[in-house]
Amino acid sequence: MVKHNVLGKVTCFITRMRNQHAELLLFQHPNAGIQLPAGTVELNEGFQEAALREAFEETGLRDFTACTFIGEQEIHLPEDKYFLYHNAKVYSRPDFISSQWAEIRRGIKVEHVRDHGDFVQVSYIEEDQFPNPNYITYQITGWVERTYVASTVLRHFYHLRSTCTTDVWEQEADHHRFQLFWAPLDQLPEIVAPQQQWVTYVTRQLKYAF
Questions:
Q1: Which of 34, 44, 72, 79 pairs with 117 at a CA distance of 20 to 30 A?
Q2: 47 vs 40: CA distance, rounded Å
Q3: Going by C-beta distance under 8 Å and a sequence separation of 6 or more, which residues neighbour residue 12?
Q4: Looking at residues 22-44, what average pLDDT do you find?
């Protein structure tokens, strides 16, 4: 198992005040339920820089009155899971001269299938999850370089304050169209796993008050 690569991730808790009550910005993913803005830190990018970039890309918002570091969480993946640490060419066999018929980008989570020398066979599966899990819509299985995967994730959480007055809007990101909306912090809808656990971790274990 590769241990030396640590992949950076960020999660953005974007809030606004409405009638003296805090509201949290969420989005409805067309295939995967209600989510928080979050993403992968790019190579040679700082965590806060990544948080502001991801917030803009997934919400369209840019002018935040504050961006506060809340805390971090380090996760060690089980042996059957990896994240891609680099954009990785996918080989048809564990050999550099075999065909390269796909690429999996940095930050994507994959299933570990087996090992062979300097290669790891992985599988990326995208499922149609919303409104109900029903089928696999896209799948890549092949061999990537062992040094291109990570088994540890360091996630930083940020609180971004907004003065946005728009209640509902749409944003295109990651080849999807998201519907964004505000929800009262004390009446949040069900957020997809493991993001629901991030809310609990920040509010209960880190004891952060929005």
A1: 44
A2: 9
A3: 36, 37, 38, 51, 54, 55, 58, 158, 160
A4: 93
Torsion of CA 26, 29, 32, 38, to 10 degrees: -50
Q: What is the DSSP letter of 82?
A: E
What are the beta bridge partners of residue 39?
10
What is the pTM assigned to this prediction?
0.92
Please state, in angstroms and rounded to a whole number, the distance separating the CA atoms of residues 131 and 93. 36
Give the C-alpha separation, 34 to 139, whole Å: 23
Would you say 165 and 61 are in contact if contact means Cβ atoms under 8 Å apart? no
CB 3 within 8 A of CB 152: yes
Single-letter amino acid, residue 96: F
